[in-house]
Design a protein that fits this description.
CATH topology of one domain: FAD/NAD(P)-binding domain
Enzyme class: oxidoreductase
Protein name: Salicylate hydroxylase
CATH superfamily of one domain: FAD/NAD(P)-binding domain
Pfam families: FAD_binding_3 (PF01494)
GO molecular function, one term: FAD binding
Number of strands: 14
Helix content: 25-40%
EC number: 1.14.13.1
Amino acid sequence: MTARTVAIVGAGIAGLTAALCLARKGIASHLIEQADRLEEVGAGLQLSPNASHVLSTLGLLPALEKRWTEPERIAIASGRSLKPLAHVPVGADARRRWHAPYGVLHRATLQQVLFDAARENPLIGMTLGVRMEGYDRAAEIADLIGVRPDLTVAADGVWSTMRAGVPGAANARFSGNIAWRFMVPFARAPRFLDPRAVTAFVGPSAHLVAYPLTDANAFNIVAIHKGPAFISHGWEMHAGQAGATFRLDAFSGWNKDIVALLSLAEKPLAWPLYECGDGRWFDGNDLVLIGDAAHATTPFAAQGAAMAIEDAAELAQAVANASEVRSALAGFETQRRQRVRRVRARADFNRFAYHARGPVALVRDVVLGLRSPERLAADLDWLYGYRPDI
């Protein structure tokens, strides 16, 4: 059986990119999204060269370049002294070394660029405002799009309802970390925030990432610390005074300018960070998970969006080149799980290094100081230089 018609549940980054990659192969798809309209969700995100390569191949890079920022470097600094510890050159160096740009932008900007491209593509249909429960998937989808799809792609995020249809899939679990997200307008930004860099300020059991968003005219701030899931499931919410106090306690002892920045944040949003372990993505028949539905990870390697984009490209390639969809999906799952395992291991290492305490933190700082920017960039060749088949 070949895939002539594909249903994609979820019109986020993973689902929209999958539809565009399939259309590039001449395969029709229909997106089904529970929201009535695609709204701004989340805040900033980083698109490393392994992801921007795919978007460039889809012809989307010019639209993104008009609105994103290409930082000159990815830096690590002390959360206590603000002293620089190390950096990886990106900007023009990323284009030269990895043959694709490293950009930062608001998630809503990327979503809108993908949505506009999908809406204009004659091979892509859309149904908004419908929540798929997954209990009788085939009948639900057939009623919506008028035909039983040859393949259903679940791209409905970490809280996927479609995941229940894949035996052995990993359910979402709390990672033990909470992310606070807010923005600081450029005009009000403190001087220690570098408009030319993505900077991770590291400290005991916590870290803070800051980078400029040209499309929002502000710095994106993400403060992550260990803590209990004191708020209910969901992507984002205000956690009230108790949550705010907990956030400040987690950064006590940090540089006074960072503490002041956190204390003055207006209505920061709290995201409990959930992840999915190494479960199955394919039901053995005609349902496959991609993106966060398959392998939600913590943001310690800044690869959440990139892994979803890679999934979309390689799924389309696998399906388009297959005479039999089931074997193609089994191969896709095997290949992608290996890649995601390595990325997850890098994220786990970063979490350990960023949140190190005492002597371990001292060793971290010394080791980083001994490594040149060129060496640090070479350590990322396997990640940023990866080229998904598309």
